[in-house]
Write a structure and sequence with these properties.
mainly alpha; Growth Hormone, Chain: A; 2 domains; 21 helices; 2 strands; globular; transport
């Protein structure tokens, strides 16, 4: 039984949410970094520090960015979003399983950080893209629902990981320099549990990824479908024309050979016999070989129908009365070379600063005055804020302008950054601050798929959105560099103020710069020069 489109759309969103629960495992890194680092300090005795381990987070973000453009391209190549999700999902779970056998930290980074990141990047945009096709007027809700799973991943699997790896609730111990805490000494068993827990987690990932992929439904307008249908139509037309052309030549030659008995020739019912006789008679004195003359005649005779096949392709999307202002960017190259794309990347980098800092370091910040069990609770609330805030923020873009919504988010960021240091006196207050900062972080991450689709159109955005994640990775590396280079000099408190400056700069850009682009001038210039205007690449 064929399901209605709206049901397919809802199931696709559910499938995307389910898969993103696993793909969002990179947000767990702030939670599992102390466990992974402690394991490799024991597995391969070294001075590996938890701060060094923090570098894996930006590496994973860049890996996700690398894989992201591949997802929609794989749909175009294989014709099935579900198949692509099946293969990528199984591969992602396998990467987590294999990472448990890594003998050195650098091997773990390659398998878990790079390979897992690239593969989940391939999955990332597929359910969002398919959801946009089913609900073109509700892009904010689509993005928010799917990415809610991405944000909640650290809650679901963070608690699962903690319960499996540290069932007795053992605490970390200071290293020899009394600077960092690790699972060693009396709590060494926690570090030793890491490989087995990773294998269990890979099994859970596999189940959820396969279940989610099964709920991804194809859409008639998905990338590759139109091209495939058009190719089949043209192939069929070409075969028909070639057959008729060969028949005309054959019949004309038979007529000329049997001039005395033309009436005896059996002609196909679609062929105009009188017309062929008349044309054959005219050819007697032309001096060219009969076959060559008939080939010219056949080409001329069927030039009209062939043009009827191709003409719609030239005219499609080129209507004189079309409102070009409703179109997105004409192609990927134009999008990538536009100043607005560069500015939107800069906005992403600046606005993510405080969120990335706290997301990757809330345990290191809080371990001086809170125990590991309570910090796990803090991480759970952070994941809730990161996940559940996404559909709220992104759905606002369906009703309000990006400038209005994002400005409000930045003002909240600035307030939290200026006052965060005052949350240290109480664990509950610290939990609330971490929760609120993660709501702003989730908002930025949820709004950018919508913004990119609004600026450049759905199809083009699906091909360039991965570059935004390189921007996210750059923002993460900046925070990593600030922590490594300045923490000992100015502490985390000083870094908060630097990030506040970034947020203020971002707010100024948002208020003064016009990000929304009207691409109509581009199309009008094409029309003025007489260049055929192609079909809108973003139309669905």
């Amino acid at each position: 039984m064929d399901l209605p489109d709206n049901v397919k759309g809802f199931l696709t969103l559910l499938g995307g949410f389910t898969m993103h629960l696993c793909c969002g495992a990179l947000y767990m890194w702030g939670t599992i970094n102390p466990y992974i680092t402690s394991y490799f300090r024991w597995r391969e005795p070294s001075d590996l520090k938890v701060e060094t381990g923090a570098a894996v987070f930006p590496v994973m973000m860049c890996a996700v960015a690398t894989g992201m453009p591949m997802g929609v391209k794989l749909i175009k190549k294989f014709g099935s979003a579900r198949l692509v999700c099946y293969v990528c999902g199984a591969s992602a779970a396998f990467c987590v399983f294999i990472s448990s056998f890594a003998a050195a930290f650098w091997q773990f980074v390659i398998i878990y950080g790079l390979c897992f990141g690239i593969i989940t990047g391939c999955i990332y945009y597929i359910p969002i893209y398919m959801g946009y096709l089913y609900f073109p007027k509700k892009k904010g809700i689509v993005s928010g629902v799917v990415l809610c799973g991405y944000g909640l991943a650290s809650l679901v699997f963070g608690l699962t990981f903690f319960a499996l790896v540290n069932p007795e609730g053992l605490n970390q111990e200071y290293d020899a320099t009394h600077t960092y805490k690790y699972f060693q000494g009396k709590s060494l068993s926690v570090a030793q549990n890491v490989p087995g827990v990773l294998r269990q987690m890979s099994f859970y990932y596999l189940i959820l990824l396969m279940a989610g992929a099964s709920l991804i439904f194809p859409h008639k307008d998905q990338v590759g479908n139109k091209e495939k249908a058009l190719k089949e139509e043209l192939t069929e037309k070409a075969v028909t024309l070639e057959q008729k052309r060969e028949l005309k030549i054959k019949l004309a030659e038979e007529i000329l050979k049997e001039e005395d008995d033309v009436g005896k020739i059996e002609v196909h019912e679609d062929v105009d016999t009188d017309e062929i006789k008349e044309k054959a008679a005219q050819m007697q004195g032309n001096g060219l070989p009969i076959s060559q003359q008939m080939e010219q005649y056949s080409d001329a005779r069927y030039e009209g129908p062939q043009l009827q096949v191709n003409q719609p392709l030239l005219q499609k999307g080129a209507h004189d009365d079309e409102d070009f202002s409703k179109r997105g960017v004409p192609n990927v190259k134009t999008a990538l070379t536009s100043i607005r794309f560069c500015m939107s990347i800069l906005i992403a980098i600046l606005s993510l600063s405080i969120g990335l800092l706290v997301n990757g370091n809330y345990k290191n910040i809080g371990k001086e005055f809170l125990d590991d069990s309570f910090l796990t609770v803090v991480g759970s609330f952070a994941a809730v804020g990161n996940g559940l805030s996404r559909p709220i923020w992104s759905s606002m873009l369906d009703k309000f302008s990006f400038k209005t919504v994002f400005s409000f988010l930045l003002v909240l960021e600035i307030f939290l950054g200026l006052t965060f240091r005052y949350s240290y006196f109480n664990g509950v207050v610290y939990l609330i601050y971490v929760f609120l900062i993660h709501t702003t972080f989730g908002g930025v991450m949820a709004m950018f798929p919508v913004v990119s689709a609004q600026l450049f159109g759905v199809k083009v955005a699906s091909q360039i959105y991965g570059i935004y994640w390189y921007g996210f990775g750059i923002a993460n590396f900046i925070q990593f560099g600030l922590v490594i280079g300045l923490k000992k000099k100015i502490g985390y408190e000083g870094i908060y103020y630097i990030d506040v400056i970034f947020s203020v700069a971002c707010l100024i850009i948002i208020r003064l710069y016009k990000l929304k682009t009207d691409w109509s001038n581009y199309y009008l210039e094409m029309k003025r020069q007489g260049i055929p205007i192609p079909e809108d690449p973003n139309k669905h």
